[in-house]
């Protein structure tokens, strides 16, 4: 069984009998996440958001079964048309037994990838948290230097670690800005989540 088929089998098992699931995607497999979510949406689910979990920031992608009648009808149609997803059969929007989008689905998969990556970067680039860490670490090293006498080690760290964190924050913001531009061009609208952060949503369900 190929890697793509294992991913598809895992997905179909998750969404078979649940209305609210988390798709766990290791950081090494992020290139396939948009395609997996596309397939899930073809079977009646909608992308809801992500969490970053663990040392390696694995993606936990939340999928929620849609109550929209059009989504339910599309799911029923696809269940009848694609009964062997993850078992070597054809896959909606993908080449057979793969997670490679056909040309007609590529644009939708690209938008899903951008939505997921934007949300992940938003979580990873928590401005308040990173600024607190940057200035807190600088203050800690400056206090420790005279207390321990290790000026040669701690004073450079008081500069380098905050500089690294602030640089990461700037890079994260630049990457989000580029993704946001693509999402707006694709017709996505800005919304605010419960924490007051700007996110993007698609105006209409994908085809499929």
Helices and strands, with pairings:
Blueprint: H1 3-15, E1 20-25, H2 33-42, E2 45-53, E3 58-65, H3 69-81, H4 103-124, H5 127-148, H6 151-185, E4 189-192, E5 198-201
Antiparallel strand pairs: 1-3, 2-3, 4-5
Helix pairs in contact: 2-4, 4-6, 5-6
Structure, explained:
Strand 4 and strand 5 form a beta hairpin. This protein has helices at residues 3-15, 33-42, 69-81, 103-124, 127-148, 151-185; strands at residues 20-25, 45-53, 58-65, 189-192, 198-201. A 3-stranded antiparallel sheet has the order 1-3-2. The chain has one domain. The chain has 208 residues and is α+β, with helices and mostly antiparallel strands. The two termini are 25 Å apart.
| Main β-sheet description | 3 strands, antiparallel
Widest sheet: strand ordering: 1-3-2
Class computed from helices, strands and strand pairing: alpha+beta
Query: What oligomeric arrangement do these chains adopt?
Result: single chain
Helix count equals: 6
Mean pLDDT: 83
Task: Briefly characterize the structure.
This protein is of the alpha+beta class.
Protein traits:
208 residues, two-stranded antiparallel ribbon, 15% strand, elongated
């Amino acid at each position: 069984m190929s890697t793509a088929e294992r991913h598809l089998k895992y997905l179909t098992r998750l969404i078979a009998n649940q209305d609210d699931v988390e798709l766990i995607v290791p950081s090494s497999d992020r290139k396939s996440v948009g395609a997996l979510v596309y397939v899930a949406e073809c079977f009646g689910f909608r992308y809801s958001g992500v969490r970053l979990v663990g040392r390696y920031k694995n993606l936990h992608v939340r999928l929620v079964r849609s109550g929209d009648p059009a989504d339910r009808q599309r799911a029923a149609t696809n269940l009848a048309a694609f009964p062997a997803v993850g078992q070597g059969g054809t896959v909606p929007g993908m080449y057979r037994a793969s997670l490679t989008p056909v040309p007609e689905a590529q644009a939708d998969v690209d938008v899903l990838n951008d939505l997921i990556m934007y949300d992940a970067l938003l979580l990873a680039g928590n401005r308040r948290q990173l600024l607190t860490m940057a200035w807190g670490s600088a203050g800690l090293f400056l206090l420790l230097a005279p207390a321990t006498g290790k000026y040669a080690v701690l004073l450079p760290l008081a500069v380098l670690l905050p500089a690294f964190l602030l640089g990461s924050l700037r890079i994260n913001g630049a990457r989000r800005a580029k993704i946001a531009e693509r999402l707006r061009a694709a017709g996505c609208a800005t919304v605010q989540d419960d924490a007051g952060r700007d996110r993007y949503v698609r105006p209409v369900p994908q085809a499929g």
